[in-house]
Design a protein that fits this description.
By secondary structure, this protein is α/β, with parallel strands linked by helices. It contains 15 helices and 11 strands.
Length: 448
């Protein structure tokens, strides 16, 4: 089936946080504290996702850390290297897509082309590359640099980096290795092409020493809402991860980035917009709210109200944590955040502490839904149908119960509504995304 003929369907993936997305998730009696390092646990997660027909298993990354990260985001403080970990997941699964994060600012394109093409072979065509340029200035000090590059330089470097990697993937035509015992021709040199890239940042001769990937070109993933990240996404990406918690803003972003695609000769189906989703699911609405409030009670924090005050434009630093929120009418942002917090807690009147907890959980911008399976499915369907999203990058608040409830209760409702698959359409990640396998650029040149 061609890309143009395929019916639009919802896409779901897991954004793995070994201890859960909620900073208090690891302290629940049932919460996992060692999920990021337990291979049996990681393998079971992959198998669960595959049984639920998820599109992908995604692992983020960062190249610097410190012990104080445990108070804000313990799941990101320490974890396995993505390509290594996903190679293990590839060995214990059969269909689930595998997205590994690689930071272009601190890598070499030839190596990344090798690593990713190798993972694509080991997984049978399920690998994908999440391209990041890095936002933590501490990373520079781990790579013999005095400072982190500015935004413009990082993106210029990343664009050329992508061009080199995708070019290297094509340097062997699909039938370049006949391995013909009778004629003695193992490789057909006329179908092996040098890249001969000479640019501002890289000089790479090629060809790659791995055959063309199973998928031809691996699906590319980027993230962000800035103008430069939108341009990068529209030019290269098959998936854009984003942080949106207001449907109208998500619709605006969706329309803007999809509207940029024709400039690069691309169609809407070639790019999926997937906001992050933090689902706190209960068998009833009250059960979900009770779990949300329990999670908040377990957050270890110094209750610094300064970042929240800066975000909402109202100074809360002089208030008691247990005081009711003051008049927020002078700030639309504050009123919006308070309304979202009310929906999550179920409380009509909020304290400063309630708003602080909501801010702590959602400061990275992902959509938090607290409710029954029916309520969570309703929001997902609404965002999908009204083109605020093509699906979601699911961030379970705790592991593995937060994931299990979503898989067991929410996914069946989405399937019953006819918007999420009940079986995989094919065996590769490109198949899951409804993407055709692209022609080889060098073969096209020869034909022309």
């Amino acid at each position: 089936m061609s890309e143009k003929q395929q019916k639009r369907q919802l896409h779901l993936g897991l954004f793995l946080f070994g201890t859960g997305y909620h900073p208090g998730g690891w302290r629940l009696p049932e919460g996992r504290t060692d999920g990021a390092y337990d291979p049996l646990f990681l393998g079971e997660v992959g198998k669960k996702l595959e049984k639920a027909k998820f599109d992908f298993f995604f692992l983020g990354d960062r190249l610097a850390t410190s012990a104080d990260m445990q108070y804000l985001f313990p799941s990101q403080m320490s974890r396995l290297e993505p390509l290594t970990m996903l190679s293990y997941i590839a060995a214990v699964t059969e269909k689930i897509g595998l997205i590994a994060t690689v930071n272009t600012t601190y890598a070499e394109p030839y190596n990344i082309a090798r690593y990713t093409a190798s993972l694509d072979y080991l997984s049978g065509g399920r690998a994908s590359w999440n391209i990041v340029t890095g936002s933590d200035p501490r990373a520079a000090l781990n790579f013999s640099r005095e400072k982190h590059w500015d935004n413009a330089k990082r993106y210029d470097y990343a664009e050329e980096f992508i061009d080199v990697v995708t070019g290297l993937w094509d340097t062997w035509e699909d039938d370049a290795m006949p391995r013909d015992k009778e004629t003695g021709v193992f490789a057909d040199g006329s179908k092996v092409h040098p890249l001969n890239h000479a640019g501002e940042h890289f000089s790479v001769a090629g060809p790659l020493n791995v055959a063309r990937p199973v998928q031809g070109q691996l699906p590319l993933v980027t993230a962000g809402t800035s103008l430069r990240s939108q341009i990068l996404g529209a030019k290269y990406s098959n998936i854009v991860f984003t942080g949106q918690n207001v449907k109208e803003e998500a619709q605006k972003f969706y329309k803007e980035i999809k509207g940029r695609l024709p400039e690069y000769g691309r169609t809407s189906n070639e790019l999926k917009i997937l906001p992050g989703l933090v689902p706190i699911v209960g068998r009833t609405e009250q059960e979900a709210r009770d779990k949300y409030n329990e999670l908040n009670s377990l957050v270890v924090t110094d209750y610094d109200l300064t970042p929240l005050s800066q975000k909402i434009g109202i100074d809360l630093t002089g208030y008691s944590l247990d005081a009711l929120l003051p008049d927020l009418s002078s700030s639309d942002v504050a009123q919006h955040w308070a309304e979202l917090a009310r929906k999550a807690t179920g409380f009509d009147e909020l304290t400063v502490r309630d708003l602080f907890y909501y801010f702590t959980v959602t400061v990275r911008g992902h959509l938090l839904i607290v409710g029954s399976a029916e309520q969570v499915a309703d929001v997902i369907e609404e965002w999908f149908v009204e083109e605020a999203a093509d699906g979601f990058n699911v961030c379970p608040p705790y592991m593995s119960g937060g994931l299990d409830l979503f898989l067991d209760l929410v996914v069946p409702k989405l399937q019953e509504r006819g918007i999420f698959r009940t079986e995989y359409e094919g065996s590769t990640f490109r198949d899951h995304l409804g993407l055709d396998r692209p022609a080889n650029r060098f073969e096209q040149q020869v034909e022309e």
